[in-house]
TrEMBL record:
Protein's gene: mnmA
All residue ranges annotated as the tRNA-specific 2-thiouridylase MnmA-like central domain in the record: 216-281
Segments forming domain tRNA-specific 2-thiouridylase MnmA-like C-terminal: 289-363
Active site (record annotation): 108, 207
PANTHER family linked: MITOCHONDRIAL TRNA-SPECIFIC 2-THIOURIDYLASE 1, TRNA 5-METHYLAMINOMETHYL-2-THIOURIDYLATE -METHYLTRANSFERASE
Protein known as: tRNA-specific 2-thiouridylase MnmA
SUPFAM superfamilies reported in the protein's UniProt record: Adenine nucleotide alpha hydrolases-like (SSF52402)
Site feature (Interaction with tRNA) residues: 133, 347
Lineage of producing organism: Bacteria, Bacillati, Actinomycetota, Actinomycetes, Kitasatosporales
Amino acid sequence: MTDAPRRLRVLAAMSGGVDSAVAAARAAEAGHDVTGVHLALSENPKSFRTGARGCCTIEDSHDARRAADVIGIPFYVWDLAERFREDVVDDFVAEYEAGRTPNPCLRCNEKIKFAALLDKALALGFDAVCTGHYATVVTREDGTRELHRASDMAKDQSYVLGVLDERQLAHAMFPLGDTVTTKAEIREEAARRGLFVAKKPDSHDICFIADGDTQGFLAKRLGRAEGDIVDEAGTVLGRHEGAYGYTIGQRKGLRIGTPAPDGKPRYVLDISPVDNTVTVGPVEALDVTALTAIRPRWCGTAPTAGPRAYTAQLRAHGEETAVTAETTEDGIAVTFTEPVRGVAPGQAIVLYDGTRVVGSATIATTTRATAGV
């Protein structure tokens, strides 16, 4: 006789969107003792949603509460705004000020949803935290957990969960990750369940920058800091109002009056906060052949010493690329099989072994294919 699945006390993080609502409903339908919680992350919640942008508004908390009522589970709102500001928003601003390109969604998953929230949930006697992420947790025969890509690669979100360690995975539940369904089917399921959020638009971009104007957001906090835009030889081509407003690989919005000698577009190659300079050049100068990354977080046991073949993902919706990686005293060293573009310090690199997430780290330095860049 097969043992019945264990009934868990589950804390379902409900953002007010359709994915987290369906995830909570599925967890309850599976027989778990589910409690819904909405995280109040904004110190000014009325300002965070414009159409389909942002989240964390009063509207979102009301939508989450209505979904919990329909599912028939208890519901609470927890105020984590101060922790979110310190660990996510302030970190985001500091990283840009230092000339790096952070990913606030990874930081939120690491510091808020699976640290602050999980720690509080465990202290209150819950067994797991449930979210609407598309990823899969696999339990091995020895009881250890692995994080894998979602069954549907089109919706896979394992990249932004690559910061979770084995302890956190042991208490993570992703009810949407092991089913191959389209977003339209998730909405149809929500409608069948009577969830009001079935037709609610998805949130996009950075939740705490409701209008999508990252440069404007940073300017309000860091102020104007005019500096030079130069080419690879150091020739001044134009001026900027803050190096923090640029990202490596950026093409649009450079406002350079002098065209390149070959007439081709220029791209941001480097951002130097030390001398407040932005360097631009041809697209081929963006080719990266290797990188070093720091602060690795392993989704399970750390890899053994020596180089190993993996695939890597460099952005949330990016493609996989073949790499060789090995652990070092400071983090990991990665060599790409083929050059890649648009790689910036501050971004996360997530390593995969097949569908399994090996771990993630923060890019510190890059090696360019073009000498002297």
